[in-house]
Amino acid sequence: MNYRHAFHAGNFADVMKHVALVDAISRLKKKDKPFRVIDSHAGSGIYDLSGEQAAKTGEAASGVAKLTDAPLLSAYLDVVRPFAPARYPGSPLIAAKLLRPGDRLVAIEKHVEDFAALEMSLSPYPTAKAIHGDGYERLAALLPPPERRGLVLIDPPYEAEDEFEQVARAFAAAYRRFATGIYMIWFPLKRRNDADALAGEIRSAGATKLLSLTLDIGRAAEAPPERLSACGLLVVNPPFGFAEAMRDAFAVLAKQLAQGAGAVSRVEWLAGEGA
């Protein structure tokens, strides 16, 4: 499948991913010691919801635009609503807005046009740096971060048939160099076997604390069969309190973003804690 960010900006998958990202960064900020966020497939940083690509799918209308005020979503909404309704920020811009002066962001993007837009969107933030390159190839060399604290987001477009395998290899190489970091790995949930195999590879790479988050919004009767309706995050070394917060927040998302009777969220430990 092709999951280029621009086509799906602000949809339910962006919402769930970014709710988790905002919460994890907020928990890292509870300690004074600086940290680093690394985004391996950063995209262009910000998206025009009236642009050709986003307008082609119109998915923001059934994603971020559907959300109503809820205490569990307030931190996320505080970040994205200043851009509404015309634009939606991607993961690197969300991270950049949340960092303190001593924290750092490294955002990697391979596509030339997207990288140029990424550089521009991050230019107001002195703590952020954009790198032009392949996130899979560049990630391990950036680890461990000088701060020895950090979060790594692996969120590829899933264009290649072996994308799940590439993600697993990239994580294993990164984890060998930075085993104490927080890792967030997003994936489209089309086939359960793919998700299960990826989780198995992450455990085999040595992860001892692994949390699975999934959101299924159900399928609207008029939705084309190829339209994504479920996705997930695998979170390695989630910070204290993150699992409980996401269980409550995702329950709100499943209710507010539901498109069919089967809408449901799940937060479960696959290794460590409550596994």
The total count of helices amounts to 9
> How is the largest sheet built, in terms of strand order?
5-4-1-6-7-9-8-10
- Count of discrete structural domains: 1
Quote the average pLDDT: 93
Instruction: Give the amount of beta strand, in percent.
Output: 15-25%
What CATH first level would be assigned? Answer: Alpha Beta
Gyration radius over CA: 17 Å
Question: What structural class do helix, strand and pairing data support?
Answer: alpha/beta
- CATH architecture grouping: 3-Layer(aba) Sandwich
Euclidean distance between termini CA atoms: 31 Å
**Largest beta-sheet characterization:** 8 strands, mixed
Q: Tell the overall outline.
A: globular
In N-to-C order, the SSE pattern is HEEHHEHEHEHEHEHEEHE
The CATH topology label is: Rossmann fold
Number of strands: 10
Low-confidence stretches: none
> Could you give me the name of the CATH homologous superfamily?
Vaccinia Virus protein VP39
Give an account of the 3D structure.
The chain is built from nine helices and ten strands. The chain is of the alpha/beta class. The chain has one domain (5-271): 3-Layer(aba) Sandwich (Rossmann fold). Helix 7 (163-177) links the parallel strand 6 and strand 7 (182-188). The two termini are 31 Å apart.
